[in-house]
Amino acid sequence: MKFNSFSTSSTLLLFFLGFLVQGQQPFFTAESEHQWLSTDLHIHTVFSDGAVWPSIRVEEARREGLDLIAMTEHLEYQPHAKDIPHPDRNRSYTIANGMIREGEKLQVINGSEITREMPPGHINAVFVKDANALLHKDSLSGIQAANKQKAFVFWNHPNWDAHRKDGIARLEPFHNYLIQEKLLHGIEVVNETTFSEEALQIALENGLTILGTSDIHGLTDWAHHIAQGGHRPMTFVYVENKSQEALKKALFEGATVVWFEDLLIGKKIHLEKLVAQNLTFVSPQYRGEKTIMEVEVTNKSAAPFHLEYTGALSFHQRASAFIIPANSMITLLVKTQQKKTTVELPFRILNAITGPKKVLEHTFIVR
Ligand SMILES: [Zn+2]
Ligand SMILES: [Zn+2]
């Protein structure tokens, strides 16, 4: 359907729905002084090989409740350049950022995808001041230029099967050099529809920030079924405030958790925090003489939690493995055999990934 065939009323309705979505709760609750900012740091438009104008990217991000997006066009790959000539490589950012209203939740930052064969493959730089200055004959100079602008630089889709036919992410000497020289700061463990355990291992071993991005070229709704309750891959950044300085600082410090389908992926210290802030076991009570403890389990987040109890007790209603859906509360009936004021319930959070073949273990203390 063409946009000009929309009736005024349906346009107004869409605008109103978009407004409602914008006012939604954050995806993940944080402690009072902090926030989990939702970001997508890898996005394309017609200014490289994407299929849409930058305004659509802003509108999608608003509807999906994102806090921040980075416009990251391919620097060297410009298939639409004949139809849409644009000597200024900042155009996509300039147009998108120009749509942001005073005081609105969504922010846009400038970026670039330095697009080379492997090694090093594709490298994103975000918080770029001038994308034109990143265009160089060799990729190292482009990466150095990004660092000169104090950009946050990360390795895109290291598992991409066009570059790695076995889908295995692995470091080349070039990447080791970039890491040693502190020219590379992060790595995508999730890109579009893929998750790489090997990339996660590389991040953990080399102190790189763990990232997940959409790398969207078409529409996010088509790729991730937003209308049916889906969501694009996002990187949540644990920040002291919503300023871009605070976000950049937290990215360099590696304070991230990736949300991809039902998976939450991050360093143990950050996942632990996110789980403790969003999943609570409270208000234990017994009825009469019975020794079955009733506990309220609340999931305040937009992601479900897949739990496996690893303790010695058993439940009156559930097996040891169960799911607490997003934004929901369940009652857990724990057979404690005698009345207790405190019970410790150890769990494995099966969808909280802290490393290859590793999930978060967390003990909830109910009192
Ligand atoms: Zn790429
Ligand atoms: Zn890309």
Write the layout of secondary structure elements.
Layout: H1 8-22, E1 35-40, H2 54-63, E2 68-71, H3 91-98, E3 107-115, E4 122-126, H4 139-148, E5 152-155, H5 173-180, E6 186-191, E7 194-195, H6 197-206, E8 209-213, H7 220-224, E9 234-239, H8 244-253, E10 256-260, E11 263-266, H9 268-278, E12 279-285, E13 292-299, E14 305-309, E15 314-315, E16 321-324, E17 328-335, E18 343-355, E19 358-366
Bound molecules: zinc ion (ZN) (2 copies).
One zinc ion (ZN) binds at residues 113, 122, 156-157.
**What hetero molecules are bound to the protein chains?**
zinc ion
Strand fraction equals: 25-35%
Number of DSSP helices?
9
Number of strands: 19
The stretches of 5 or more residues where confidence is low (pLDDT under 50) are 1-23
- Which secondary-structure class do the elements indicate? alpha+beta
> Roughly how much helix do the residues carry, as a percent range?
10-25%
Mean pLDDT: 94
> Which sheet architecture does the biggest sheet show?
15 strands, mixed
What's the helix-strand series? HEHEHEEHEHEEHEHEHEEHEEEEEEEE
CATH topology of the largest domain: TIM Barrel
| Overall number of structural domains | 2
CATH superfamily of the largest domain: Metal-dependent hydrolases
